[in-house]
Amino acid sequence: MAIPAEESGTLPLFPLHAVLLPGAGIALRVFERRYLDLVRDCGRQSAGFGVCLILEGQEVGKPATPAAFGTEARIEDFDLGADGVLVLRLRGARRFHVERTRVRDNGLVVGDVRWCEPDSDDELRPEHSLLATLLERLVEQAGPQYAATTPAQLDQAAWVGWRLAELLPLTETQRLSLLQQDDPHKRLDLLLSWMP
User: Fold this and answer.
1) Which end of the chain is less congested by CB atoms within 10 angstroms, N or C?
2) What is the C-alpha separation between 51 and 43, in angstroms, rounded?
3) Pairing of strands 86-103, 25-30
4) Separation between Cα atoms, residue 96 and residue 19, nearest integer Å
């Protein structure tokens, strides 16, 4: 399903101690009333919400301070855990920059966001070919969710960068640095600079 390319908008935010990357999947346990209401509203409107790294605060309780960059989360699936807590399966979509936040009466943080430009479909440059080889090895070990990886994807600079950011043991601060970078080749340069 194509997502409309708006330049800016308002987005409810779910600050986490994790960075959601475009195309990446994460599981999220939801039990606070403000977030249960958020999920209900997103379901009714077939809309997503924003996931941002927490810069200050916690995931529960008082509203946390989110990073200025985040990723739109789309709900792929949901279930109830054995403890009766709602578990969502999310997929990262568009990147955004938070220009201003406010907190609703229920404690939900809402951001005025500017959507980042979609990644170009540039081919991998020769200096980044080692990263594609590394990703190919990681994908072989990663399990069935990457079974459909194609040679064409392994030649796309943006796709290689996001999947490496997802699979490598990076810090959340490093992932946030990649999320803030608009140029897929510069993302790959950063990844190369972090290699031992």
Assistant:
1) C
2) 16
3) antiparallel
4) 13
Three-state secondary-structure class, residue 11: strand
For 58-63, which contacts have Cβ atoms below 8 Å and span 24 or more sequence positions? 59/15, 59/16, 59/17, 60/32, 62/107, 63/15, 63/103, 63/107, 63/108, 63/109
User: Residue 94 corresponds to which amino acid?
Assistant: R
Name, in order, each residue with C-beta under 8 angstroms of 47's C-beta and a sequence gap of 6 or more.
41
SS3 state at 28:
strand
Number of other residues whose CB lies within 10 A of the CB of residue 62? 8
What would the two tokens of residue 23 be?
């195309």
3-class SS at 120? coil
Tell me which residue has tokens 């600050």: 15
Which tens digits make up the pLDDT trace of 78-126? 998 888 889 999 999 999 999 999 999 888 999 999 999 999 889 999 9
Tens digits of per-residue pLDDT, 29-59?
A: 999 889 999 899 988 988 999 999 999 888 8
pTM over 0.85: yes
How far is Cα 63 from Cα 51, in angstroms, rounded to an integer? 14
Instruction: Give the whole-angstrom CA distance, residue 106 versus residue 63.
Output: 10
